[in-house]
Amino acid sequence: MNTPFSRAARWLEALYRVFGYLAALCIFIMLVVIVVQVVLRWSGMTLPGATNYAGYLMGASTFLAAAYTFHEGGHIRVGLLVERLGRFRPIGELWCLLVASGIAGFITWHAFDATYWSYRFGDVSSGQDAMPLWIPQALLALGSMAFTISIVDQLVRTLAALIRPVRIKSHGTHPVRSL
Q1: What's the structural domain count of the chain?
Q2: Which H/E stretch holds residue 168?
């Protein structure tokens, strides 16, 4: 069945995967920058801004990977608390996702705001390279936006599972719950 919901779910999963690949690319580029800096130091030269670039790439990889990691269930969750709720567990999950989406949305809003103002004022890094700060900030903002989308996606899925009626199918003598 090819419903709009299933098409959106496939599109979002592809988006999370792309951001995961971008995070891996940032980590690989960070490795290259560090290795180049080490080799250059052995030869008595330096790569201006290498430390800053490594830091920008580390931050970008962290934020870019957040959505993929959340979608794949790799983040530490408040399972200890939620599992003790028993039959109220779905409500606890919903509450946690609401709070998380609010916090992630707040971070995303301010990440885009900082990127905009850095671009508008022409802010550059204080290092030798004078990198325009909006470039690494844009990667952080995009990663936090994807993370917010992934949390809201999970929130909608959890809410849909709570609202959707449960159908009982009978297979032989054992009823099977179908969602």
Answers
A1: 1
A2: strand 167-171
